[in-house]
Amino acid sequence: MDTPVPLNSRYSYHAIFSDICKTRFNHLATRLLLTLAVVFGLILALVSGSNQTNLIHKLFLWPVKCMVCYLGMLLVVVTRKNYLHVDFPGYSSIITQVYGQLFSVKLLVYFFIYSASSACFNGAAGSAILGHLSSRKNMFAYRFAIWILMPALYALQHVIFDLDKLSFQYGAQHQHPQRFISSKIKNSLTKSFMLTLALAIIFPICTFHLAPSTGYLSWMSFFHIQLSALLTFALWDLVNLSFNAYLSMGCLHKGKPISSLSSTPMETLLTGLSSKRSFTKLTAFQELSYRATSPDIEARLPIYHTRYKNVYVWPSVLKECITTLNSTNSAVSIFMKSVESKQELYTKKPSVDSDYLEDGTQQNDLFGNDYVITANTQSRIPGTPQTQDSQLTHRIKVQNNNVFAKNHNLQFSSPFQFSNAANNRILTHQTTITNIIYDCVKQAKDFFIAFFFPIQGTDATAPLSSFEIWRISKKLQAERLSPLAVCHAECTVSLMALLVKALQEDPKGAVVSSVGEILKILERSVASLGAFAEWNTSSASKDSSILDVVTILYDLSINAFLEIVLKYNDLLSDVYLADDVVKLSKWMLEMCNEQA
């Protein structure tokens, strides 16, 4: 097979995407945040001062208050930029997540950043708050709340729940930032009220024990401090929400895929699919899914056609998709083997239809028949847990909806194989020296975690200890096994959509001829992820309505497999299929026929 010619690093998908992310960040900082600072500064300027302060004097203070407020917002987004990530942190239980996040430098950094930001906001407020404090002895309580308690509360919830992570909905390739922000405002305000309520409970207790000589604040002073806290919490959350909206806009730039900015789009896209940077890789797979599901055939023609010496495009795309799917499948399989050794936690699999276990070589009567699947079917593939979300049992529809975001092959590498320039961090320029320092610090951090927190670990497939197995969280373990679950989902959707559309758009092309290979990898996903999906832990039994990412990927794999089989029903009799693929196809088609 021909291999693509390596591109210059500045033409790689990562380089182009880094420039786009910087543009989006600049739009956030110079447009939205500056507008918020101007509005907020104007409000503070008008309500500050005494009744005798004339309007001219207040307007004179307006630019000063705007700049102070803007500085407070900018501190937050710059810190978010440096801690930005898209993969799950990799904890196996709530306990390891809490102490792993609490005992970190990041918590201290965020505490000081939010403390400085709070000082900026409340300093800009000035007499609007301070003027209502009854006496100087209460200034200690006020400063303690503004500089210590408020930043500590917000930093704690931000770090423990890993709110630095950008979340993407499966199958969503683009989101409009303003619409995303408006859809989350209600939740943001609710969160701000809850944090203010927590502060109202903690604040009197702390001030009484730390400085009993200050006495109790008056109700009016207490009310104004709580009002200041509510506004500060709301402003912080709005800034973080805006950051998420602008940095998770997806794979489109001005309505076009990111790779279209290159003179060699497919070659550029391939560098993104194989990138070692999680954010870049995820966005590249989003673009592949966008191209696969787009109603415009022009988005897929470069993948279908082998003209212009690009015969390696589809084989390279398929190779990266299979590698991505196999990384999750292998991790889950190794983990389940470890679970199987713990007889107390492994539940017996439900009995499987004997027809599914028969020899699958009888292909003659399997394909070419009419099968119908109903939307309300309750029959599921053996091993699939029952869920309340009936939509997950439906087939995937090939469509292109602009939905808004909510929410490796393991190889040994030397500690001193430093980062490649083409894979530098998003939004942050790195020189050779900073690359060396960054990699050395990373190695030291991994050693520290492995020594002091061996339960957490960095290897998701490591065997479970007897202590860990009893307190494991199925949801968190699923995230640990599939840290980039969105990539796996986009792979599944892309392969399914490309096969389905190629049957009419390019029936004699390379995509259609790969149907056997794609069905095989999807069958492996069903087999590997199915064991985890049916696995019941003590935490999972408490709330079975919460789906983990592996179970969601399992449903996607089943639906994609079924969609392809139904679409290629008349052609599969002439295609060589592995025995396991035939067995699964037979079982699924018979289930569909029973529900017709």
From TrEMBL:
It is found in: Nucleus membrane; Nucleus, Nuclear pore complex. GO terms for biological process: mRNA transport; nuclear pore organization; protein transport; spindle pole body duplication; spindle pole body localization. GO terms for cellular component: nuclear membrane; nuclear pore transmembrane ring; spindle pole body. It is a multi-pass membrane protein. Keywords: Membrane, mRNA transport, Nuclear pore complex, Nucleus, Protein transport, Translocation, Transmembrane, Transmembrane helix, Transport. The chain crosses the membrane at residues 28-47, 59-78, 107-133, 139-156, 193-211, 217-239. Its main location: nucleus. One of its GO terms (molecular function) is structural constituent of nuclear pore. InterPro entries: Nucleoporin_prot_Ndc1/Nup. It comes from the Eukaryota. Belongs to the NDC1 family. This is LADA_0G08020g1_1. It comes from Lachancea dasiensis.
